[in-house]
Amino acid sequence: MATLALAACATTPVTQTTAATTQSALRNRPRRSAVRQALERAAESAQRCVSPANSPVEVQGAFAGETGRFTAERVLPVTLDQAQRACVQRAFGEASVPAFRNAQHAAIYTFTSAPHAASSGDWDVDPHAVGDALRARREDIHSCYQTQLDRDPTLRMLVGVQFTILASGSVRGDTQHWIGELTGDAERAHDVGRCLERLVQTLTFQLRPGSQGADFRYPFSFRSQSAATPGPAPR
Fold this sequence. Notes:
Elements: E1 6-12, H1 20-24, H2 32-46, E2 57-64, E3 70-76, H3 82-92, E4 104-111, H4 127-135, H5 138-149, E5 156-165, E6 176-183, H6 186-200, E7 214-223, E8 226-228, E9 233-234
Antiparallel strand pairs: 1-4, 2-3, 2-4, 5-6, 5-7, 7-8, 7-9
Helix pairs in contact: 2-3, 5-6
């Protein structure tokens, strides 16, 4: 699967008048799980649009309350060409959630590309399996961030973890992290990175017979009160 980074922003009250009975049946804003699932599916399609050299890719946009459809307003990095950016926007334009009361619900989603030739048979470790394993630990991943966010409410960051999966399937102990983008206290950000390193080192993966291991770089985007994990970028 693709990524995951997700950060919900503030919503804007709807101004259009609708039937009271219809409005009362709607939530003020979409469920966080619905937003995450919609953007995850879009990111799976968007992976084909970009190359590993352009990873990670950040999509900024909003869901419309009336229709539930997502519009990608900005796609980063700026190194993407016009065709790549348009391809990503089309893919995310397919994302939708049930309609809600507020006029819009902004979101930011970060994902990494997978090489076009890649399949589970092309890698000693299936990159999708790595992403699935990390997504299964989503609560622990968010806890790494939340602990430091409680100490620095301004903390927003893009952090990556680099690790090596050994032939045994375990993760080698020399895991490292790096900080990409940062708002807030740098030491708090590194504390998040060190927490993620420890988490990754607890994972075990299934390798192909005869494999000597594999290297991965995996980015995480943390913004506001919600966070999600993008997919892995094989090195």
